[in-house]
Amino acid sequence: MPSRFIHLHVHSHYSLLDGLSKVPDLVKRAKELRMDAIALTDHGVMYGAIEFYKECRHAGIKPIIGMEVYIAPRKLTDKKPGIDAKNNHLLLLAQNEIGYKNLIKLTSKAHIEGFYYRPRIDNEYLNEHAEGLIGASACLKGKIPQLLLENRYSEARETALFYERIFGKGNFYLELEHHPEIQEQNKINKLLIKLSQDAKLPLILTKDSHYLYPDDKEAQDALVCIQTGKTMDDKKRLNMTGFDTSLVNENVMLEYARELNCPEAIENTRKIADECKIELDLTTWHFPKFAVPNSRPSDEYIRELTYSGLKKKEGQITPDDKQRLDYELDIIISKKYHDYFLIVADFMKWAHDQGIIATTRGSASGSLVSYALGITSVNPLHFQLPFERFLTKKRPTPPDIDCDIQDSRRGEVIEYVRNKYGKRQVANIGTFGTMKARAAVRDITRVLGLPYAMGDKIAKMIPQGPQGSYISIEKAIEINPELKQFYESDAHVKKIMNLAKKIERCVRHVSVHAAGVVIAPDKLTNFLPLQIEPKGEEIITQYDMHAIDPNIEEETVGLLKADFLGIRNLSILGIAKEIVKHTKKIEIDLEKIPWDDKKTFKLLSHGRTMGVFQLSSSGMTRYLKELIPDNIYDIMAMVALYRPGPMEIIPEYIRRKKDPSSITYPHPKLKDILERTYGLLIYQDDVMLTAMTLAGYEAEEADEFRKAMGKKIKSLMVKQKIKFIEGCKKNGLENSKAQEIWSYIEPFAGYGFNKAHSSSYAVVAYQTAYMKANYPSEFMAALMTAESDNTGKIVEAVAECEKMSIDVLAPNINESLANFTYISDKAIRFGLKAIKNLGTDIVDTIISERKNGGIYISLEDFLIRVHSKNLNKKSLEALIKSGAMDAFGERNQMISNMNRLLAFIKTYERERNTGQFSLFGAKAEKKIVLTLDPTEAAEEKQKLIWEKEMLGLYVSSHPFKNISGIFAKVTANCSDVLDKQITAGSNIYSAGIITNIKKIFTKKNELMMFVTLEDATSALEVIVFPKLLKKNPEIWQEDKFVFLSGKISDKDDIPKILADRAYEIDPNNPQSVLKKINHHVDNGESQDKTTARDIFISVDAKNFNKKMHTDLKIIFERNYGKNRVYLMVQQNGEIRKIVTNFYISYNNEVQRQIEELIGERNIRIKMRNNLPIYKQ
Fold first, then answer.
1. CA–CA distance, 27 with 30 (Å, rounded to integer)
2. Which Pfam families does the record associate with it (predicted)?
3. Phi-psi region of 838 (alpha: psi -120 to 50; beta: other; left: phi over 0)
4. CB-based contacts of 191: which residues, under 8 Å, 6+ apart?
5. Fewer CB within 10 Å, N side or C side of the chain?
6. What gap in Å lies between CA 725 and CA 732, rounded to an integer?
7. What are the DSSP E strand ranges found in 373-483?
8. How far apart are the first and last CA of the chain?
9. Helix (H) or strand (E) holding 724
10. Which element (helix H / strand E) includes 1134?
11. Residue 227 Cα to chain centre, angstroms
12. Residue 700 confidence (pLDDT)
């Protein structure tokens, strides 16, 4: 039986931080209440419209799409303070598709042109777009209720009739609301009934629902407090707890209608529901057409471009190339995707023509058409990439081409697309930030007025799921006994978590998707609503990716989504190319570099991977040093394998590469497929090709097989197993062999990686390694420029430069460009933009004047020639303190004479403006002289402090450098730890200066710290637990020198020290700390803790041949460190000690490599300086 009453005024959590109801829960609740229709009317937005429509349809409920709009008091473009900040509400419901599209236009206009505190429309624009809409007078904030409250009945009547004229006879309703707790509402309801009779306007009854159940009231109130920044005990705040806005059942509304004696207000809700009939087309794709030159058919044009493009890249087109091209083109054109490929090819070509580094990742690299069109840089035939992993005839959704653009120029590419297809047809895609479990707990704690530490403690007890997966509050209580006990034993904690559970996953804000851009064939507002990015000026979609992209959801608005992901490493490549072009006059084509470059593979094999795309983590670096890669396919494999799960295969991969005799294949027919991976299954594509080769699968069937393996659905796996084994048997394999091969590939479902994705990443990884190996100074200058907003990365890069014998110099007024500046193959300077308190304007002025007028020859020359209002005390101090002005004098003298410098500038400007320096072009006799008072020169320590203040790090030297030598024999430097020269779990000593401190509280509410320890080589994190902190809290301060002991941890693949003892170093007497350490050692307080040792290797002269000598030498060279190597050669019953010139880092892996050559138990380690050794 149809519902007699229908909820027509309903808010979801898309009424940001006001509505509590999540759309699936809302629809589920409507179903429970036996409602056969329901409306969604969020405040000024349509964020949830598509989700709501689909959820309702799947539940068998009619969706009524609406919106509660804000009406501006005057024109929507009027934004005068004090007048236009006020607005009135109006309820709109779409009767049909025309009404739906008008809602889109109204909300888009409101956001883009009418936004003033709220997204507003005006009556004029509403009148133009009222077709297909039903209007209602809304809540107490509606214009008509407001006029009635002000006893302006006749104006209310005029307004009501005005809206009736806008919407048409019978399409505008006066809205009674069921809020009997609100006196004003009761008064208004009576007046609205009178007005209805007087003006002959129909009535409806609504609830203005903001949550689902009465006991959600407090959670919704908390949500409003989060929005307004108030606490719940604030008596002056907006408070909605005095009345109920839950989604009530029909009987409540029927009873209230009887009290009002308005049965028609109920009947009209049913009438409106019956009249609203929206059928959205969510299965058609709306791709823009590519404008082909001379209006030729685009299917012919793509064939021509593809063939010419491939010939240009490869020199010729082979029969295999032609067969593959024709096969791909036939599928692409038959599915009408050719315009899509042409569009992507066009903006990628434009990017390349502008010198912007752009490539693609993912399955698109499996397409030879994509490669020929310049969309990808990977030839799929060279890398054995199947096209079917990207696109098949039966694929129900369009292909997805993800573009990676250098992040420093990503905006240029998007702007080109906007200009090409029209600004009204292109927009960034919006995305919704929701309140995750931990954030919800902290927010609720704050609005309840409870201590931050309490919320922080609870939040930290909510674990992170495997590989970053989400764990809800409910699940956290279930799996964490400590949290459960806390929850059950503390009333405050229970209240926090109960409320947090209700607001968890509510939308908190709207932002811009990191990559997604939508391109429409017509105005975007014919398809979806738009708005302005909340924290910027870009136009973005109100619908998110799930409502737009058919590759994510089956039912969407079906527009072309292009991914433009900004990649930092591509910026490094782009900047490095430009530096090489500028300094060496070499134009590098990254697609034509040699793929067998010895310098590149040597760099990777030696672990010099800092800044190399995908290969720079310490764990990956360690494996590369073992692997000694010598081809691009090794890099591909490492990219695929270095992940949780498949990482276990890496040692076997390395073993097989080093020992070809150990390579085996599951079946001889698989050799061609698995030869490059030494017989191992690594990629998802390997599964496809195995099924095609052994079991006779067609390409599309093989792709389905791959998907089934990836989804790990038992029923699908069983079906595929039967099909696979039967297919193998038909192709001549014994049942036992087919079963054996199945058992070999089945576990692969847990870790298979997209081969096309891996090949794309491997190419970029190789390109960055190539640039670093062949143009090291240019590459590092580019890296530091790209990372200039990250001081930690700059510190790391400076340390890397030191290892590469490249000097990183302070900025120089006559040499520095805006960014990090290549000086020579052995020197890089800080750019002027790196100096704090120095704006872009003054930097541009300095460089422009230097370019036009030559270098600055003196301080006076600089002050006279740089004309900028921003050349003031702040900017001058910044230049001087950073060292940029060192060529003109001593830093402290210039700083101390700052008033004289400023007076000189002022005097010169005054004289210049009054024309005192020249008459009719002749030089004047008068000259202003700058005289500086003498002062004492700044000490080295002061200069370094200034550099750290202005540049974020020490540049000309390091405060720890002068005393680091005292500790060199007993400590591990920061660089060694970061490079994993010391095995995780090892106990070490380290020393340096504290440069940063982050304080947190543990679950037990105890203070602990994350400290940045910096020495002259690099900086690393030291974790200081409460127990150590309590022992000597005075040590842990910024700029203090410390000597500490602790254990190496490489959690999250980032080495750090877990400190267990610490001593402050007196810079004036640093040796004194060593006495303290030896005292503790003598008293048994510290064991096994030094890093400098002598390594004694015993060898038998009879077996010590030339090959063993060479192999040992290679190990020593690849593992440079601080431990001296001695050979103990046994010959004729005697032992001869040979002191080598090798110093190595020593850890478990190095030990294993040496023992493989000389046998076990032939290595002895001896401590130095009577300090104890540490265990491995």
1. 5
2. DNA_pol3_alpha (PF07733), DNA_pol3_finger (PF17657), HHH_6 (PF14579), PHP (PF02811)
3. beta
4. 148, 153, 156
5. N
6. 11
7. 402-406, 426-434
8. 77
9. helix 714-730
10. strand 1134-1144
11. 25
12. 83
Asked whether the beta carbons of 982 and 972 are under 8 A apart, the reply is: yes
- Cβ atoms of 541 and 111 closer than 8 Å: no
Q: CB 849: neighbour CB atoms within 10 A? A: 16
pTM of the model: 0.83
Phi, psi of 1142 (to 5 degrees): -95, 135
- Report the Cα 1095 to chain-centroid distance in Å: 45
Kindly state the tokens that stand for 16: 């940001």
Residues found in the chain = 1176
Q: What are the backbone angles phi and psi of residue 210, rounded to the nearest 5°? A: -120, -10
- Express each pLDDT in 812-822 by its tens digit: 999 999 999 99
Q: What angle do CA 672, 674, 676 make, to 5 degrees?
A: 95
The CB density around residue 376, as the number of other CB atoms within 10 Å, is: 29
Q: What SS3 state is found at 329?
A: helix
Q: Which segments within 47-144 are labelled E, that is strand?
A: 62-71, 88-94, 120-121, 133-136
Strands 37-40 and 62-71: parallel
Place of tokens 């795309």: 613
| CA atoms of 1021 and 1044, how far apart (whole Å) | 12
7 close to 39: Cβ distance less than 8 angstroms: yes
Q: Where are the beta strands (DSSP E) in 850-977?
A: 918-919, 922-923
Map 19-35 to HEC letters.
CCCCHHHHHHHHHHCCC
pLDDT score for 523: 95
CA torsion through residues 49, 50, 55, 60, sign: positive
Helix (H, G, I), strand (E, B) or coil at 524: helix
Phi–psi pair at 89, nearest 5 degrees = -90, 155
Q: How many other C-beta atoms lie within 10 A of the C-beta of residue 261?
A: 9
- On whether the CB atoms of residues 207 and 7 are closer than 8 A, the answer is yes
Residues 6+ apart with CB under 8 A from 728: 694, 695, 737, 738, 741
Query: Amino acid identity of 220?
Result: Q
What structural domains and CATH numbers belong to the chain? 23-212+247-275 (3.20.20.140), 293-431+512-568 (no CATH), 589-769 (no CATH), 780-951 (1.10.150), 961-1067 (2.40.50.140), 1093-1167 (no CATH)
Q: What is the pLDDT of residue 1166?
A: 63
**Inter-axis angle of helices 714-730 and 684-695, nearest 10:** 40
For the segment 114-171, what is each residue's pLDDT rounded down to a tens digit? 999 999 999 999 999 999 999 999 999 999 999 999 999 999 999 999 999 999 999 9
Helix 437-447 to helix 217-228 angle, to the nearest 10 degrees? 90
Structure tokens at 945: 């402090």
608-662 pLDDT, tens digit per residue, is 999 999 999 888 988 999 999 999 999 999 999 998 778 888 999 999 999 999 9
Contact 94, 102 (CB under 8 A): yes
User: How are the residues of the chain apportioned to helix, strand and coil, as percentages rounded to the nearest 5?
Assistant: 50, 15, 35
Taking the C-alpha atoms of residue 62 and residue 654, their distance in angstroms, rounded to an integer, is 60
- Nearest Cα neighbor of 733 from 768, 765, 696 is 696
**Looking at the DSSP assignment, which residues form a beta bridge with residue 1012?**
996, 1021
Interatomic CA distance for residues 819 and 222, integer angstroms: 47
Tokens of 995: 């440069």
Burial of 536 (0-12, 13-18, 19+ CB in 10 A): exposed
Structural element, H or E, at residue 873: helix 873-882
Report the candidate in 413, 499, 450, 636 with the shortest Cα–Cα distance to residue 222: 499
What is the spatial distance between Cα 362 and Cα 384, in angstroms, rounded to a whole number? 14
Query: Angle 452-460/437-447 helices, nearest 10 degrees?
Result: 160
Give the integer Cα–Cα distance in Å for 667 and 662: 15
CA 755 to chain centre: 23
